[in-house]
Amino acid sequence: MIDSVSGPIPTVGRNGATPEPGGGRAAPLLQVRGLAKHFGGVQALKGVDLDILAGEVHGLVGANGAGKSTLIRLLAGLYRPDAGSIVVDGEPVTIVDPAHASGIGLNFIHQELNLVPKFNAIENMTLGLPKASRLGLITWGPVRRQVDEVARRLGADFPLDIPVEHLSVANQWVISIGRALVRRARLIAMDEPTASLSAEEAGRLFQIIRELSSDGIAILYVSHRLDEIMDLCDRVTVFKDGVRVLHADRAAMTKGGLVRAIVGSDVAAASSAGAPDQGGPVVLETRHLGRGSVVREVSLQLHAGEVLGLAGLVGAGRSELARLIFGADRADTGTILLEGTPWRPAGPHDAFARGIGFIPEERRSQGLILQKDVSFNINLADLQPLRYAAPIPLISLSRAARRAERIAQQLGIKAPRVTTPVIELSGGNQQKVVIGKWLTRHPRVLILDEPSRGVDVGARAEIHRSIKELAAGGVGAIVISSEVEELPGLCDRVLVMVEGRVAGELTGREITKEAILQLSYAHGQGARTES
Amino acid sequence: MTNAQESVSVQGGRASGDRRRRAFAFVGRYGTLLGMVLMIAIFSVAAPDAFPTLSNGINILNQASLTAIIAGGLTVALIVGEMDLSIGYVASFSGVLVTGFMVDQGVPWPLAILAVLLIGASIGAVSGLVITKLRVNSVIATLGVGTVVVGINYAYAGGVPVASGVPKAFLDIALGRWVAGIPNNIIFMFVTLALLWVLINRTDLGQRIQAVGGNREAARLSGIRVDRIKILALVVTGIASAITGILLASLIGSGTTSAADGYLLMSFAGCFLGSATLRDGEFHIVGTFIGVLIVAIGFNGLAILGAPTFWQYVFQGAILILAVGLSTVARRFAKT
Predict the structure, then answer these.
(1) Is the pTM of this model over 0.80?
(2) Model-level ipTM above the cut of 0.90
(3) CB < 8 Å to B223, chain A
(4) Chain centroid offset of residue B192 CA
């Protein structure tokens, strides 16, 4: 095995065959020492340490890309570390795959849960386990007894014999925990468990977590929600850029301290004093717009010629807000005003007819007809002008090609020809084709959901340039991005969303990576109390 | 394993995979054409006096004509991403209706044809509504609608062929040779296919049909009313089915309850063969024409060679499986 890591690797525990007795009581259940992993040129983990004791609830927090998921995947045996050691019960282990991890008591519940939708709770909990059988047929009796015991322990009050797809997400979480218990888990790692749970359901989950912990099972609790961490965890570890930057126990935990550790510097709270001139008139306004618990009471104004950023953590409700404005979903409450006139979108075609463009997050599955060529895709949103004569629905392909060529040139789309299928283009060029599709419409409002996801740095710069040029031409642009680095250079104004609400607004020079993160994590209130 | 090794092996795999992919893409695009040429060559050698003649060529086109029209309509449904299993039943019903209208209700033949075309369009619209508004899978929806159509067919004619008293002018439509001695059905085939080709490739509606079939969600987010487009596509399919039914009634001089049911299988064979012709598993009108032609050449050649009837069924089943298989393989290897 060749170590291809060039960075400094802490030597702690590299040859550590002996357990570290530590300061007194039991040895940790899990000891991670100097764990490092890189992907391509990115060093995702730069030698981190982590101790987890039996029966503790251990919080793990950090911004997107801090290395939390990488650590979890290393522990689950999905990746192999470049360097460092994992010690379980004082024995160094090389975890080869998830089954192995489960065999030594480490279980993982990922955000997407990974249950088989058509299987019932019993089948899901015992999936992949050897089962007693007679004449090659599974005898469900012992299995059922085992599952019943786990279900009782978890207080499961739902039927165990219906397909889990008919159960709520909260109950699916219970089943996932049950799956870990059936495997005699000693550590259960949970990734964002409350992301799609209601407050009441989350409360029930916390109760289960506390009971498991008192039974001696350790919980590694990964979450963006600092209030939950403060409430639930005995100790917390903060990662930033692949390094452990904070390690605190309950007594030393403060929300401000956690935010500072996540963000990396002590930022003055954002003040919206002296709102600068926004330039153009308001093209789009929402008042108290809401849908269920994902978008709550969002009021915003978008000016012509402005690039407005929507920041926030995954699940903050940004894409959902965009879908309300574009009419892809219906709002339960509130109103949308388009150039001052109240408007209730009847669907995407309505928003489209009124000059609202939407560039979806998943460009391959939602933005493009992949097997069709560049010209087809660019012209799709506006076919009328391609007709030879307005009343006759015959379209001219040469007109289509000319328009596609003009737009391709304007956006710097690198394609051999406009008759090249878009499936053959790079991600950045595909994204430009999606943007180009809306240029034909001369939209008043353009919503871009993660416009530069998965494109290289050069293409990102060009996409940003295109967005700015559009704005300069009078378009009001809304840019949604989960990468906080993206917004500062691009936006005139940024709204930070937290749990469906607008938690804060940043303008001009206030827009920094740190300020966005601060608002994302501090729920707005944190920022106020600290200033 | 180190990353270096990984990337090398991945690249190696990609290079040979690429060659394989290109080979399959070639087979996918031109394999069916090669097959057609091969078939023609074999039949020409085996029956040099009967097969490779002008009159037999016209004969093949004539035999292919009604299938090509109904398959052209089916192609539109397939392009928009839906199946239509009702086409054969709709065509049979159209034949019964058009003759019934003329013989029993005394409707003049042009009016009878117009009425039946409208009814074909309506049946397509009903299928479209069931698919889009009730969200029933199109296989089930069109099977259901088709079966109801069979029921109405029996209710209308009682299962008895409408034969006597069909006006001569109506019979002349399919039997006549108005242009240069070419059987009219061949002309109708080329005209219908040309219209369908223009519809798909050179009209707003056609672009939208292709977009909806290519990526429903992307089309919807581009402001296209997906449901409406699907319904319109199935209306086109319904009209094409009605045309085939009317021409068949004119050709055989009667409206028979299940005369056109068999077109369903041949149409699917033609469409799927066509989707693997010149394109990578994409349905298109020119492909469908070639696909239907291949089926017709096979039938014709087997008949000339005096192959027993059961061979025709074996051929038809085999070609359907081959067509769908080729189409699927072509689509898989077209993906990067």
Answers:
(1) no
(2) no
(3) 348-349, 351-353, 381
(4) 12
